Amino acid sequence: MKKLILLSLISVLLMSKAFAVEWNNLSAKEKTVLQSVSGQWDKMSVAQQNKLQLGANRWIEMPTAQRDNLLTKFKQWQKLPQNKKNQLSKQFETFGKLPTSQQEQLRSTHQNFKKLPAKKQRQLMDKFKKSRQKINKSKVRNKLKSKRN
User: Fold this and answer.
1) 123 is a domain residue
2) Is the confidence at residue 19, as pLDDT, over 90?
3) What is the per-residue pLDDT for 140?
4) Domain boundary among 62, 83, 114
5) Cβ 46 vs Cβ 21: under 8 Å
6) Does 4 reside within a domain?
7) Average pLDDT rounded to a whole number, residues 80-109
8) Are residue 98 and residue 44 in the same domain, yes or no?
9) d(CA 72, CA 78)
10) Are residues 58 and 1 located together in one domain of the fold?
11) Helices 118-148 and 100-115, axial angle in degrees (round to 10)
């Protein structure tokens, strides 16, 4: 039984190495995109290598304007304070847990919002902030009332 388990483990290890993506087998464009991880490449799991290679190819095939937009957003992300990054990450995670229909509805609403003139966007954002403040004040009042009782 021990020999069977040992043989199984060895075969799994050999198989995983057989499907590993060798750095030298990547295209020149893939290597350029993935240069920041070149030193760790051989230490990564096959799944990580495949995921990064897939991402590199998506990046290579992406239109220049879209790529520039993503780079701008990434630079903005890097400048954010850590607490804001954490907050946005949590929101993204929450969004990912929503049913697909709700995600699509939110995306559609956001697209419609982005089509509005800047002045109208600001008005809606101010209105939203005021309504959130009222809700928060109401929650605080309710907590105070419940503590008194």
Assistant:
1) yes
2) no
3) 77
4) 62
5) yes
6) yes
7) 95
8) no
9) 10
10) yes
11) 130
Query: What type of residue is 70?
Result: L
Residue at 42 is within a domain: yes
| Residue 147 lies inside a defined structural domain of this protein | no
Return the ∠ at Cα 113 (arms to 89 and 101), rounded to 5°: 60
pLDDT at 16: 45
The Cα 142–Cα 146 span in angstroms is: 6
Question: Does one domain contain both 98 and 58?
Answer: no
The string of DSSP letters for 70-135 reads HHHHHHHHHHS-HHHHHHHHHHHHHHHHS-HHHHHHHHHHHHHHHHS-HHHHHHHHHHHHHHHHHH
62 C-beta neighbours (distance < 10 Å), count: 13
**pLDDT tier at 5, thresholds 50, 70, 90:** low
Structure tokens given for 142? 């309710």
Query: Can you give the residue range of the structural domain that contains 105?
Result: 94-135
Both tokens of 92, joined, read 């993204």
Specify the residue for token string 């809700």. Answer: 135
Of the candidates 74, 95, 96, 77, the one whose C-alpha atom is nearest the C-alpha of residue 86 is 77
Q: How many folded domains does the chain comprise?
A: 2
pLDDT (average), residues 25-45: 94
- pLDDT average, residue stretch 129-140: 83
Mean pLDDT over each residue of the chain, to the nearest integer? 87
